[in-house]
Amino acid sequence: MKNLLVTGGAGFIGANFVQYMLERYADLTITVFDKLTYAGNPQNLAPVADDPRYAFYQGDICDAEAVDRAMQARRIDTIVNFAAETHVDRSLMEPGSFIQTDVYGTFVLLEAAKKYNVERYHQISTDEVYGEVMTGRSVETDTLEPRSPYSAGKAGGDLLCLSYYTSFGLPITITRGSNNIGPYQYPEKVVPLFVTNAIDDKPLPLYGDGMQMRDYQYVLDHCAGIDVVLRHGQVGEIYNLGTGAETPNIVMAKTILNLLGKPDDLIQPVTDRPGHDRRYALDVSKIRELDWESRYDFSAAIEATVKWYVDNQAWWRRIKSGEAYQAYYSRNYAGRAV
Ligand code: NAD
Ligand code: TYD
Q: Where in the chain is the domain with CATH 3.40.50.720?
Protein backbone atom coordinates (compact mmCIF):
# COMPACT_ATOMS: atom_id res chain seq x y z
CA MET A 1 0.00 0.00 0.00
CA LYS A 2 1.98 2.96 -1.31
CA ASN A 3 -0.14 4.88 -3.79
CA LEU A 4 -3.73 5.38 -2.66
CA LEU A 5 -6.62 6.58 -4.76
CA VAL A 6 -9.11 8.17 -2.39
CA THR A 7 -12.38 8.73 -4.23
CA GLY A 8 -14.72 11.24 -2.63
CA GLY A 9 -11.73 12.67 -0.75
CA ALA A 10 -13.06 16.23 -0.88
CA GLY A 11 -16.09 15.27 1.22
CA PHE A 12 -16.42 15.04 4.98
CA ILE A 13 -14.94 11.66 5.94
CA GLY A 14 -12.65 11.41 2.91
CA ALA A 15 -10.93 14.73 3.68
CA ASN A 16 -10.41 13.71 7.32
CA PHE A 17 -9.00 10.37 6.13
CA VAL A 18 -6.54 12.01 3.70
CA GLN A 19 -5.24 14.31 6.44
CA TYR A 20 -5.07 11.43 8.92
CA MET A 21 -3.09 9.16 6.57
CA LEU A 22 -0.62 11.83 5.39
CA GLU A 23 0.10 12.82 8.99
CA ARG A 24 0.66 9.23 9.99
CA TYR A 25 2.63 7.67 7.14
CA ALA A 26 5.60 9.37 5.47
CA ASP A 27 5.86 6.91 2.56
CA LEU A 28 2.37 7.24 1.05
CA THR A 29 1.13 9.15 -1.95
CA ILE A 30 -2.54 10.07 -1.99
CA THR A 31 -4.53 10.97 -5.07
CA VAL A 32 -7.97 12.37 -4.38
CA PHE A 33 -10.45 11.72 -7.20
CA ASP A 34 -13.62 13.71 -6.65
CA LYS A 35 -16.43 15.12 -8.78
CA LEU A 36 -16.89 18.09 -6.45
CA THR A 37 -20.65 17.80 -6.13
CA TYR A 38 -22.40 20.19 -3.72
CA ALA A 39 -20.85 18.11 -0.90
CA GLY A 40 -17.28 18.17 -2.21
CA ASN A 41 -15.23 21.13 -1.05
CA PRO A 42 -11.56 21.77 -1.90
CA GLN A 43 -11.29 23.81 1.33
CA ASN A 44 -11.59 20.53 3.24
CA LEU A 45 -8.21 19.58 1.77
CA ALA A 46 -6.51 22.95 2.27
CA PRO A 47 -4.23 21.60 5.04
CA VAL A 48 -2.60 19.13 2.59
CA ALA A 49 -2.83 21.17 -0.63
CA ASP A 50 0.92 21.87 -0.75
CA ASP A 51 2.05 18.42 0.31
CA PRO A 52 4.16 16.90 -2.52
CA ARG A 53 2.72 13.44 -1.73
CA TYR A 54 -0.79 14.65 -2.57
CA ALA A 55 -2.56 15.24 -5.92
CA PHE A 56 -6.12 16.15 -6.84
CA TYR A 57 -8.06 14.92 -9.89
CA GLN A 58 -11.53 16.29 -10.51
CA GLY A 59 -13.68 13.57 -12.04
CA ASP A 60 -16.75 11.36 -11.80
CA ILE A 61 -16.32 7.75 -10.62
CA CYS A 62 -18.91 6.81 -13.25
CA ASP A 63 -16.48 8.02 -15.98
CA ALA A 64 -14.31 4.96 -16.66
CA GLU A 65 -11.81 6.85 -18.82
CA ALA A 66 -11.21 9.53 -16.22
CA VAL A 67 -10.73 6.87 -13.53
CA ASP A 68 -8.34 5.00 -15.82
CA ARG A 69 -6.22 8.09 -16.42
CA ALA A 70 -5.77 8.66 -12.70
CA MET A 71 -5.04 4.98 -12.03
CA GLN A 72 -2.31 4.93 -14.65
CA ALA A 73 -0.73 8.34 -14.09
CA ARG A 74 -0.48 7.86 -10.33
CA ARG A 75 0.47 4.12 -10.34
CA ILE A 76 -2.36 3.34 -7.95
CA ASP A 77 -2.07 0.14 -5.90
CA THR A 78 -4.94 0.74 -3.42
CA ILE A 79 -8.40 2.23 -3.88
CA VAL A 80 -10.44 3.54 -0.95
CA ASN A 81 -13.91 4.48 -2.15
CA PHE A 82 -15.68 7.19 -0.17
CA ALA A 83 -17.39 8.73 -3.22
CA ALA A 84 -21.16 8.60 -2.87
CA GLU A 85 -24.34 10.56 -2.69
CA THR A 86 -24.89 10.39 1.06
CA HIS A 87 -27.92 12.25 2.37
CA VAL A 88 -31.05 10.18 3.05
CA ASP A 89 -33.43 13.16 2.70
CA ARG A 90 -32.02 13.99 -0.75
CA SER A 91 -32.34 10.33 -1.75
CA LEU A 92 -36.07 10.62 -1.06
CA MET A 93 -36.34 13.66 -3.36
CA GLU A 94 -34.02 12.62 -6.21
CA PRO A 95 -32.84 9.03 -6.00
CA GLY A 96 -31.34 8.81 -9.51
CA SER A 97 -27.89 10.18 -8.67
CA PHE A 98 -27.67 7.79 -5.69
CA ILE A 99 -28.13 4.76 -7.90
CA GLN A 100 -25.76 6.17 -10.51
CA THR A 101 -22.88 6.99 -8.15
CA ASP A 102 -23.32 4.49 -5.32
CA VAL A 103 -24.02 1.46 -7.54
CA TYR A 104 -22.74 2.13 -11.07
CA GLY A 105 -19.79 4.23 -9.83
CA THR A 106 -18.74 1.37 -7.53
CA PHE A 107 -18.85 -0.99 -10.52
CA VAL A 108 -16.57 1.34 -12.54
CA LEU A 109 -14.05 1.46 -9.69
CA LEU A 110 -14.13 -2.32 -9.25
CA GLU A 111 -13.40 -2.75 -12.96
CA ALA A 112 -10.43 -0.37 -12.67
CA ALA A 113 -9.23 -2.23 -9.56
CA LYS A 114 -9.39 -5.51 -11.50
CA LYS A 115 -7.62 -4.10 -14.57
CA TYR A 116 -4.75 -2.64 -12.52
CA ASN A 117 -4.54 -5.63 -10.21
CA VAL A 118 -4.63 -3.50 -7.06
CA GLU A 119 -3.41 -4.80 -3.71
CA ARG A 120 -6.67 -3.70 -2.09
CA TYR A 121 -10.03 -2.21 -2.97
CA HIS A 122 -11.71 -0.87 0.15
CA GLN A 123 -15.37 0.10 0.13
CA ILE A 124 -16.72 2.60 2.66
CA SER A 125 -20.19 1.42 3.55
CA THR A 126 -22.73 2.18 6.24
CA ASP A 127 -24.72 0.59 9.05
CA GLU A 128 -27.84 1.71 7.14
CA VAL A 129 -27.58 -1.29 4.79
CA TYR A 130 -28.90 -3.51 7.62
CA GLY A 131 -32.08 -1.46 7.81
CA GLU A 132 -33.62 -0.49 11.13
CA VAL A 133 -32.76 -2.78 14.03
CA MET A 134 -35.32 -2.56 16.80
CA THR A 135 -33.57 -5.00 19.16
CA GLY A 136 -30.09 -6.48 19.39
CA ARG A 137 -27.15 -5.47 17.20
CA SER A 138 -26.25 -6.04 13.56
CA VAL A 139 -23.45 -8.47 12.83
CA GLU A 140 -21.62 -8.55 9.52
CA THR A 141 -23.37 -11.72 8.33
CA ASP A 142 -26.89 -10.30 8.84
CA THR A 143 -29.23 -10.06 5.87
CA LEU A 144 -29.29 -6.63 4.25
CA GLU A 145 -32.67 -4.92 4.55
CA PRO A 146 -32.09 -1.33 3.38
CA ARG A 147 -35.18 0.89 3.46
CA SER A 148 -34.18 4.16 1.75
CA PRO A 149 -32.89 4.72 -1.78
CA TYR A 150 -29.57 5.80 -0.19
CA SER A 151 -29.13 2.63 1.85
CA ALA A 152 -30.39 0.44 -1.01
CA GLY A 153 -27.75 1.96 -3.30
CA LYS A 154 -25.03 1.43 -0.70
CA ALA A 155 -26.16 -2.19 -0.23
CA GLY A 156 -25.90 -2.66 -4.00
CA GLY A 157 -22.33 -1.33 -3.87
CA ASP A 158 -21.44 -3.78 -1.07
CA LEU A 159 -22.87 -6.73 -2.99
CA LEU A 160 -20.92 -5.80 -6.12
CA CYS A 161 -17.70 -5.67 -4.08
CA LEU A 162 -18.38 -9.12 -2.62
CA SER A 163 -19.17 -10.47 -6.09
CA TYR A 164 -15.79 -9.23 -7.42
CA TYR A 165 -14.08 -11.04 -4.55
CA THR A 166 -15.95 -14.28 -5.23
CA SER A 167 -15.89 -14.17 -9.02
CA PHE A 168 -12.49 -12.62 -9.73
CA GLY A 169 -10.55 -12.93 -6.48
CA LEU A 170 -10.33 -9.13 -6.21
CA PRO A 171 -8.87 -8.33 -2.75
CA ILE A 172 -11.73 -6.29 -1.36
CA THR A 173 -12.60 -5.25 2.18
CA ILE A 174 -15.69 -3.37 3.38
CA THR A 175 -16.29 -1.29 6.49
CA ARG A 176 -19.84 -0.46 7.58
CA GLY A 177 -19.58 2.69 9.63
CA SER A 178 -22.17 4.27 11.89
CA ASN A 179 -23.05 8.01 11.79
CA ASN A 180 -19.89 10.12 11.77
CA ILE A 181 -19.54 13.56 13.32
CA GLY A 182 -16.66 16.02 13.35
CA PRO A 183 -14.91 18.68 11.24
CA TYR A 184 -15.97 19.41 7.62
CA GLN A 185 -19.39 17.70 7.67
CA TYR A 186 -21.77 19.38 5.27
CA PRO A 187 -24.42 21.14 7.40
CA GLU A 188 -27.37 19.18 5.99
CA LYS A 189 -26.54 16.22 8.26
CA VAL A 190 -28.21 16.48 11.62
CA VAL A 191 -25.31 17.31 13.95
CA PRO A 192 -23.67 20.16 11.98
CA LEU A 193 -27.15 21.41 11.06
CA PHE A 194 -28.24 21.56 14.70
CA VAL A 195 -24.96 23.05 15.93
CA THR A 196 -24.87 25.81 13.31
CA ASN A 197 -28.59 26.60 13.67
CA ALA A 198 -28.17 26.79 17.46
CA ILE A 199 -25.19 29.15 17.19
CA ASP A 200 -27.51 31.48 15.21
CA ASP A 201 -30.49 30.96 17.59
CA LYS A 202 -32.45 29.26 14.79
CA PRO A 203 -34.82 26.31 15.40
CA LEU A 204 -33.49 22.74 15.44
CA PRO A 205 -35.94 20.75 13.27
CA LEU A 206 -36.29 17.43 15.09
CA TYR A 207 -38.02 14.72 13.05
CA GLY A 208 -40.94 12.89 14.67
CA ASP A 209 -40.65 12.13 18.38
CA GLY A 210 -36.85 12.43 18.42
CA MET A 211 -36.50 8.92 19.88
CA GLN A 212 -34.64 7.52 16.88
CA MET A 213 -31.30 6.04 17.89
CA ARG A 214 -27.96 6.54 16.11
CA ASP A 215 -24.42 5.50 17.01
CA TYR A 216 -22.67 8.89 16.61
CA GLN A 217 -18.93 8.24 16.25
CA TYR A 218 -16.09 10.75 15.92
CA VAL A 219 -14.77 10.85 12.37
CA LEU A 220 -11.13 10.31 13.38
CA ASP A 221 -12.10 7.04 15.08
CA HIS A 222 -13.69 5.99 11.80
CA CYS A 223 -10.53 6.96 9.88
CA ALA A 224 -8.35 4.98 12.30
CA GLY A 225 -10.62 1.94 11.87
CA ILE A 226 -10.35 2.11 8.07
CA ASP A 227 -6.56 2.29 8.37
CA VAL A 228 -6.56 -0.78 10.64
CA VAL A 229 -8.68 -2.75 8.16
CA LEU A 230 -6.42 -1.71 5.26
CA ARG A 231 -3.38 -2.99 7.15
CA HIS A 232 -4.70 -5.93 9.15
CA GLY A 233 -8.15 -6.81 7.75
CA GLN A 234 -8.77 -10.08 5.90
CA VAL A 235 -9.64 -9.76 2.23
CA GLY A 236 -13.22 -10.68 1.38
CA GLU A 237 -14.34 -9.59 4.85
CA ILE A 238 -16.75 -6.96 6.16
CA TYR A 239 -16.13 -5.02 9.39
CA ASN A 240 -18.71 -3.01 11.34
CA LEU A 241 -17.21 0.24 12.59
CA GLY A 242 -18.78 2.36 15.34
CA THR A 243 -18.72 2.92 19.09
CA GLY A 244 -21.29 0.19 19.74
CA ALA A 245 -23.51 2.59 21.76
CA GLU A 246 -26.55 4.59 20.61
CA THR A 247 -28.00 7.95 21.56
CA PRO A 248 -31.58 9.16 20.91
CA ASN A 249 -31.77 12.25 18.68
CA ILE A 250 -33.53 14.27 21.39
CA VAL A 251 -30.59 13.67 23.75
CA MET A 252 -28.13 14.62 20.98
CA ALA A 253 -30.08 17.87 20.37
CA LYS A 254 -30.22 18.79 24.07
CA THR A 255 -26.51 18.02 24.52
CA ILE A 256 -25.65 20.43 21.69
CA LEU A 257 -27.84 23.17 23.18
CA ASN A 258 -26.36 22.62 26.62
CA LEU A 259 -22.78 22.84 25.29
CA LEU A 260 -23.63 26.11 23.54
CA GLY A 261 -25.57 27.56 26.50
CA LYS A 262 -28.78 27.77 24.43
CA PRO A 263 -32.36 27.02 25.60
CA ASP A 264 -34.09 23.67 24.89
CA ASP A 265 -37.04 25.51 23.34
CA LEU A 266 -34.97 25.98 20.17
CA ILE A 267 -35.93 22.35 19.46
CA GLN A 268 -38.78 22.38 16.96
CA PRO A 269 -40.61 19.08 16.37
CA VAL A 270 -41.31 18.69 12.64
CA THR A 271 -43.03 16.10 10.45
CA ASP A 272 -41.09 12.85 10.42
CA ARG A 273 -38.96 11.61 7.51
CA PRO A 274 -40.90 9.04 5.46
CA GLY A 275 -39.64 5.52 6.20
CA HIS A 276 -37.41 6.90 8.97
CA ASP A 277 -35.25 4.09 10.36
CA ARG A 278 -35.89 4.03 14.10
CA ARG A 279 -32.64 2.51 15.29
CA TYR A 280 -29.25 1.41 13.99
CA ALA A 281 -27.03 -0.59 16.32
CA LEU A 282 -23.77 -2.28 15.44
CA ASP A 283 -21.97 -5.18 17.02
CA VAL A 284 -18.34 -4.09 16.74
CA SER A 285 -16.62 -7.14 18.22
CA LYS A 286 -15.10 -8.21 14.89
CA ILE A 287 -13.09 -5.02 14.33
CA ARG A 288 -12.10 -4.96 18.01
CA GLU A 289 -10.29 -8.24 17.34
CA LEU A 290 -7.98 -6.21 15.05
CA ASP A 291 -7.02 -4.14 18.11
CA TRP A 292 -9.11 -1.14 17.18
CA GLU A 293 -11.13 0.71 19.80
CA SER A 294 -13.00 4.01 19.49
CA ARG A 295 -11.32 6.74 21.52
CA TYR A 296 -14.24 9.17 21.66
CA ASP A 297 -17.47 8.25 23.41
CA PHE A 298 -20.59 10.26 22.54
CA SER A 299 -19.82 13.09 25.01
CA ALA A 300 -16.24 13.54 23.81
CA ALA A 301 -17.25 13.31 20.14
CA ILE A 302 -20.05 15.87 20.37
CA GLU A 303 -17.93 18.24 22.46
CA ALA A 304 -15.05 18.19 19.95
CA THR A 305 -17.54 18.62 17.10
CA VAL A 306 -19.35 21.59 18.64
CA LYS A 307 -16.02 23.25 19.33
CA TRP A 308 -14.91 22.86 15.69
CA TYR A 309 -18.07 24.54 14.34
CA VAL A 310 -17.76 27.36 16.88
CA ASP A 311 -14.13 27.89 15.86
CA ASN A 312 -14.63 27.52 12.07
CA GLN A 313 -17.64 29.68 11.31
CA ALA A 314 -16.26 30.99 7.99
CA TRP A 315 -16.22 27.40 6.66
CA TRP A 316 -19.93 26.71 7.26
CA ARG A 317 -21.26 30.25 6.82
CA ARG A 318 -19.96 30.21 3.24
CA ILE A 319 -21.95 27.02 2.57
CA LYS A 320 -25.11 28.02 4.41
CA SER A 321 -25.31 31.44 2.78
CA GLY A 322 -25.12 29.90 -0.71
CA GLU A 323 -28.15 29.73 -2.99
CA ALA A 324 -27.98 25.95 -3.48
CA TYR A 325 -27.98 25.31 0.26
CA GLN A 326 -30.88 27.65 0.87
CA ALA A 327 -32.93 26.13 -1.96
CA TYR A 328 -32.37 22.67 -0.46
CA TYR A 329 -33.23 23.91 3.03
CA SER A 330 -36.58 25.36 1.98
CA ARG A 331 -37.39 22.32 -0.13
CA ASN A 332 -36.77 19.92 2.76
CA TYR A 333 -38.11 21.97 5.67
CA ALA A 334 -40.73 24.43 4.40
CA GLY A 335 -44.20 23.53 5.62
CA ARG A 336 -42.84 20.77 7.85
CA ALA A 337 -43.37 22.35 11.28
CA VAL A 338 -46.01 20.54 13.32
P1 NAD B 1 -20.02 13.58 1.71
O2 NAD B 1 -21.37 13.71 1.11
O3 NAD B 1 -19.54 14.60 2.69
O4 NAD B 1 -18.92 13.52 0.55
C5 NAD B 1 -19.07 12.73 -0.59
C6 NAD B 1 -17.94 13.09 -1.54
O7 NAD B 1 -18.07 12.27 -2.72
C8 NAD B 1 -17.98 14.55 -2.01
O9 NAD B 1 -16.68 15.10 -1.99
C10 NAD B 1 -18.51 14.45 -3.44
O11 NAD B 1 -18.04 15.50 -4.28
C12 NAD B 1 -17.96 13.10 -3.87
N13 NAD B 1 -18.74 12.48 -4.96
C14 NAD B 1 -20.09 12.32 -5.01
N15 NAD B 1 -20.43 11.73 -6.18
C16 NAD B 1 -19.27 11.51 -6.85
C17 NAD B 1 -18.97 10.93 -8.11
N18 NAD B 1 -19.93 10.47 -8.91
N19 NAD B 1 -17.68 10.86 -8.49
C20 NAD B 1 -16.68 11.34 -7.70
N21 NAD B 1 -16.91 11.91 -6.50
C22 NAD B 1 -18.19 11.99 -6.09
O23 NAD B 1 -19.98 12.11 2.33
P24 NAD B 1 -19.32 11.55 3.66
O25 NAD B 1 -20.25 11.79 4.78
O26 NAD B 1 -17.92 11.98 3.74
O27 NAD B 1 -19.39 10.00 3.35
C28 NAD B 1 -18.31 9.34 2.70
C29 NAD B 1 -18.62 7.86 2.56
O30 NAD B 1 -18.87 7.30 3.84
C31 NAD B 1 -19.87 7.57 1.74
O32 NAD B 1 -19.60 6.43 0.95
C33 NAD B 1 -20.94 7.28 2.77
O34 NAD B 1 -21.91 6.40 2.26
C35 NAD B 1 -20.11 6.62 3.85
N36 NAD B 1 -20.63 6.76 5.22
C37 NAD B 1 -20.93 8.00 5.72
C38 NAD B 1 -21.36 8.11 7.04
C39 NAD B 1 -21.65 9.46 7.66
O40 NAD B 1 -22.12 9.52 8.80
N41 NAD B 1 -21.37 10.57 7.00
C42 NAD B 1 -21.50 6.97 7.83
C43 NAD B 1 -21.18 5.71 7.27
C44 NAD B 1 -20.75 5.64 5.98
P1 TYD C 1 -28.81 12.27 9.27
O2 TYD C 1 -27.71 13.13 9.79
O3 TYD C 1 -29.55 12.68 8.04
O4 TYD C 1 -28.21 10.81 9.12
P5 TYD C 1 -28.95 9.39 8.80
O6 TYD C 1 -30.37 9.62 8.51
O7 TYD C 1 -28.19 8.93 7.61
O8 TYD C 1 -28.72 8.56 10.03
O9 TYD C 1 -29.88 12.08 10.43
C10 TYD C 1 -29.52 11.54 11.67
C11 TYD C 1 -30.76 11.42 12.52
O12 TYD C 1 -31.29 12.72 12.77
C13 TYD C 1 -31.86 10.64 11.84
O14 TYD C 1 -32.57 9.88 12.82
C15 TYD C 1 -32.77 11.72 11.27
C16 TYD C 1 -32.64 12.85 12.28
N17 TYD C 1 -32.77 14.22 11.72
C18 TYD C 1 -33.62 15.14 12.35
O19 TYD C 1 -34.28 14.84 13.36
N20 TYD C 1 -33.72 16.38 11.81
C21 TYD C 1 -33.02 16.75 10.69
O22 TYD C 1 -33.18 17.93 10.24
C23 TYD C 1 -32.16 15.81 10.07
C24 TYD C 1 -31.37 16.18 8.84
C25 TYD C 1 -32.07 14.55 10.62
A: 3-180+217-241
